[in-house]
Amino acid sequence: MIDRIKIILDNPEFLPEKEKLFKNYKTPPKWKFTRRFRNLFNSEVQLPKGEKSARLRLFLCTYKDTGKTKLVFNGSIRKWYERKEHRKNLTYNKFIEVISMLEKEIGLVENSLWKAKVTQIEIGVTTGIKLKAEDRNFFLCIGSHKELTQKNSYSNTGVEFIGENYHVIFYDKISHIFCNKNKSLGKNINENYFVLRYEIQIHKISGVSLFEGKINKLWKIKKYWDEINMELRDSLDHVDYIDVISDEQIKKLKNCGKKELMEYFIFKGMESIGYRRSSVLFKNMTPNNRSLHSKSFKDIYQKHIKDDGTRLIFRVTSQLKTDIEGLLLVEPD
């Protein structure tokens, strides 16, 4: 779930001799603090031959007036823990382990890093299955975001919604990995399949209502792990998806009457909140009405889900939600 993160730990407690590993870093005289830095590599990760390890760049800042210090770093703890090109999601147990490993590698007193403030974070999921190459048409079906109005589309490799304090991104993980490494190999792989990544990049936590009160401290991420994942899953419903790849669907929308249009809106509503959740609404009806309306709405849903574009949207978003639910400690209701 957690990928890149920026944290600040006030007055870090180092084990003896560990603070000496930081080297002087040029700081402008007008700044209120001086800085020392250290590149941190994971000494335990096993790398394939020729592959470089991901690094975290640490800064130890000392304020000139008070002498107080703070430790700052910004980087992908998932890549640091696994390896640079790895695409596995960071599970709860791995998250706990990576924080423990960071404390040891940096030389901090045990459990002291959990007190760190989080100021920026990337939260997301990578699909656990390889989607077919033609499934990249899913990017064409990503319409608009309910809160973010600016949208960038990158052909058939990704879509990004941009806000002042956070971005929402869908992209092909394979293309991302190979874009600056081996383009010819990446092109050959892309002809067969792609791996979808859904991600929320938060650049200013205090300015975002998503995950409010749950991600501004490391210990809170540990405590509210399931709640954060559920909000990530539900955030997929903040996006409006449009079937633009089914010729038949386009023809229907161009020439449909009031009844067909109403049925399409009913289908989109059921799709938005989920078929299973929609079915729960019928439980409060009388038996006769429940039987009548449940069947008619089910027929409408089944009728429209058969269209190629709609089926693709449903299949891909369902897979993302399933992968997110797989990161939970407790199974959802």
In brief:
The protein has 333 residues and is an alpha+beta fold. It is built from eleven helices and 14 strands.
Task: Provide the residue-averaged pLDDT.
Answer: 85
DSSP summary: helix tally: 11
Largest sheet: 10 strands, antiparallel
Molecular shape = elongated
The order of strands across the largest sheet is 2-3-4-5-1-6-13-11-10-9
The rounded Rg comes to 24 Å
- Beta strands, count: 14
Residues in β-strands, percent: 15-25%
* Helicity range: 25-40%
Q: Segments where pLDDT lies below 50 for 5+ residues?
A: none
Helix-and-strand structural type = alpha+beta
| SSE sequence, one letter per element | EEEEEHHEEEEEEHHEEHHEHHHHH
In whole angstroms, how far apart are the ends? 20 Å
The figure for the number of domains is: 3
